[in-house]
Specification:
By secondary structure, the protein is α+β, with helices and mostly antiparallel strands. It contains three helices and seven strands, in the order αβββββββαα. It is globular and about 45 Å long.
């Protein structure tokens, strides 16, 4: 297993729609293991394959470190949100946007389907932090970042702050 580099804004792969996984093979299993190690090392509660430079529809998540509810590690291949309910507003950050957080409205409950790491169909329900994490990681698969979900004024403010940070480095 290896800790992979987490791609940071404005890397191009973060804005691209990821390709569906066609084959579950040893290479994909290694990628899953590396993504899990990368997520824990970051430390984060979720990682999507595009964040580690791979354009595949694959996410890993483990919210048990930040949530009172003990949920198992989740690996989802080709995940899709099939329905959502409620709306919650909460603060969100992203490993690809270090040192940036913002408040976002997201569904408070989602139902997601996909495949587990063995290729078996799975459906799961996420509420609270798990719901937000699943939505966040699936956004990455669709080429969306949290800054794509904020107002244009906030986005311009973010971009100006980002440009200033480049000048300091």
């Amino acid at each position: 297993m290896a800790v992979l580099e987490i791609k940071k804004y404005p890397e191009k792969i973060l804005k691209e729609r990821a390709s569906p996984v066609q084959e579950i093979d040893d290479e994909l299993q290694r990628l899953i293991d590396d993504m899990i190690e990368t997520m824990y090392s970051a430390p984060g509660i979720g990682v999507a394959a595009p964040q580690v430079g791979v354009s595949k529809r694959l996410i890993v998540a483990d919210v048990s470190l930040k949530d009172e509810e003990k949920t198992p590690l989740i690996v989802l291949i080709n995940p899709e949100i099939i329905s959502s309910e409620e709306e919650i507003d909460s603060e969100e950050g992203c490993l690809s946007l270090p040192d940036y957080t913002t408040h976002l409205k997201r569904a408070g409950r989602v139902f997601v389907k996909g495949l587990d790491r063995e290729g078996n169909p799975v459906e799961l329900e996420g509420t609270g932090l798990l719901s937000r994490t699943l939505q966040h990681e699936i956004d990455h698969l669709n080429g969306m970042l949290i800054i794509d979900r904020i107002s244009s004024i906030k986005r311009e403010f973010f971009k100006k702050r980002f440009q200033k940070s480049l000048l300091r480095d």
